[in-house]
Write a structure and sequence with these properties.
By secondary structure, the chain is an all-alpha fold. 81% of the residues lie in helices and 0% in strands.
Length: 172
């Protein structure tokens, strides 16, 4: 009975290998997409272009928006990046562990080439997932700081009852 359960669990875990690898590849590509958009936004912010200041753009589009709503908007804009930051290493671990069983079995059978192939997939997956996580984490941290600074400047302007048009250029 125990061997049937072990066989079933082994077979079930092997079913997840392809979907996990596909998601890791997607997260890796997503990380570079996020990095590219981050670089564009950083350049826009440095040049003082309004497009680089998302929360201020939202306030300009709807001057009645509250600070709480702007905070929710900032959290929504960070949500996908933060999820990718946390999920990528977990999937990397899964992608490492799934081929370890067959690799160890191949080692026990003296099939070193099969073991090597299994370990190659395992380590490649974890490396890509960690790179994706590192990129998305860095972007999330800097954007979080940007949003906090923007919210602070908007809050100061609201406290001083300045209309958006009278905000200092750095705050617009």
């Amino acid at each position: 009975m125990t061997s049937q359960i072990e066989t079933a669990l082994y077979g079930l875990s092997q079913l997840f290998m392809l979907p996990v690898l596909v998601v890791i590849a997607a997260l890796f590509l997503y990380a570079f997409y996020v990095l590219g958009s981050f670089i564009v936004q950083a350049l826009q912010r440095r040049a003082g272009q309004p497009a680089g200041f998302e929360l201020r753009q939202a306030l300009r589009a709807d001057p009645r928006i509250s600070l709480g709503e702007l905070e929710v908007l900032a959290a929504q804009r960070l949500e996908c990046v933060r999820i990718a930051t946390r999920v990528a290493p977990l999937l990397g671990l899964v992608a490492t562990m799934i081929p370890m069983g067959p690799a160890l079995a191949a080692l026990g059978d003296g099939k070193v080439a099969d073991m090597s192939r299994g370990l190659g997939v395992a380590f490649s997956a974890v490396i890509l997932s960690l790179i994706a996580s590192a990129i998305t984490h860095a972007v999330a941290q800097v954007r979080r700081r940007w949003y906090a600074a923007d919210l602070l400047q908007i809050e100061r302007a609201v406290d001083e009852a300045l209309p958006y048009e009278l905000l200092p250029e750095a705050a617009r």
